[in-house]
Amino acid sequence: MNRYHILREPILLFLVGTCLSVSQFVMIRDFVTILYGEEVVIILVTAAFFLGLSIGYFLSLKFSEKFFKTSFLAIAFLHLTFPFSYRMFAVGIAKLDLNGAWYVVLMFIYALIFSSIFAVFLPRLINERISNPDNATQKMKILYSMELIGFAAGFAIVGLSWNKGVDFILPIYWALLAIVIQLALQKKSWTVVFVLMAIVAGSSIKQIDRRTTALLYENKHSLDTATTLLSINPAYQKVEVMEDEDKERYLYLDGLLNLNASDLEDLNYYIAEIPATLIKPEKTLIIGNGTLSSIAKVYPHSRFVQSVELDAGVLLAGQRFFTPVEELSGFENWNLTVDDGKHFLKTTDEKFDLIIMDIPSPLTIQEAILHTKEFYQLAKSRMTVKGTIAVQLSGPLQNNNRTPARVVAALSKAFKQVMVLDSEQADRSFAYASDNLPLNESNVKQATRDYEENLTILASADVPSYLTEAVPLALDNLDLVLRRGWERFTGRYFDDD
Description:
By secondary structure, the chain is of the alpha/beta class. The protein is built from 19 helices and twelve strands. It has three domains: 3-211, Growth Hormone, Chain: A (Up-down Bundle), CATH 1.20.1250; 218-259, Spermidine Synthase, Chain: A, domain 2, CATH 2.30.140; 261-490, Rossmann fold, CATH 3.40.50. The protein has an eight-stranded mixed sheet with strand order 7-6-5-8-9-11-10-12, sandwiched between helices. Strands 1-2-3-4 form a four-stranded antiparallel sheet, sandwiched between helices. The longest helix is centred in the first third of the chain and has 32 residues, at 3-34.
């Protein structure tokens, strides 16, 4: 037996594992976007992949050689449409106004197809030319190990794709798949055809990616005549910038609307400008605010401003489409650090008069950690005696156990005084918290009288009456965030009404 035949099987299994890893990553990122950023999608896609693997392992030896080759080729060529084909199916589901469960069905079908076709290789290769059971066991160990190593290698490729779109990772994926086709079928004609079709597809990846993404937002997210300005896959979330026919720009994170450009003025006014104007802090810390749009509102009132943003992809989107970096070039006493807000607070020795928390509502575990009582206690340890923290809330404070009440309850565990502002104009609420709150209802009303007439202000003494049913967000009850996500998911896709 020549060297080619000795190396063929382990290399094939290595590449199969790599392809599985990459395709799983792409599918998770896309379906999280399609299904509104719910973390439960990660679990469901992973479960579907493992189910597909199980089905593939079970059926692998039941297929004839001819059927195996035919089905493998068909699905391999289907991979040239990945992920654009299921996006268009999702668009079709939206156009037909079908029940949301169809999106889940679509997700499972694609996950099963893309995983099960790879799974057939391991049992088939082990079974080939095996007469001694001991040899079979040894061969299984080697081949299974190679598949696992390949799966790990896929993560390295995924890492290289951070801050890049599918136009970067798909050509790599297709090249690996071409090698798999050659090693599996050992027929150059099919490999050549696949490579030629991949080259044709690759020449228009970027255009197809942008158009299918735009169609998805037009039909599923109800965004009129959308144009995709940016679609990248950073380490933490999918970042997309869309533009409508009126040239309004929107920032989406994992398919959830984070902000639109016209909202920035109202958001920054209440979370940054008002507290900075009234407090006049020596040092200000801004956590989040990847668009960097708060800097100009705070800088005139603060001697020093420190920005901390975790996601370099959001910073890229912000500087390209929302706050050009040249607008901030004259701010000598401003510093930007790419870091996790919690890690920054743990490692800094600085004390701040104002901390601005411009991060999304705690709809996921990743976001919820920065809204817990433990985090607010950490923030408090990095604040001066009259230091104040400003936090945006997803909605008005009500006497229930929903997200705004849980966040305010967490603030109340860390700080003695909490004030809440409910803004109709900004379409959200804001909380200011401190042990010695240098703000009161009177001076906030005075400062905002010309900006919004109907601003509702809950003074520190009034806030506790709204928290009687609220469980504060804390590290030991973050399972409630996942449960809430599951409730949103099932309610959105499986409730009859």
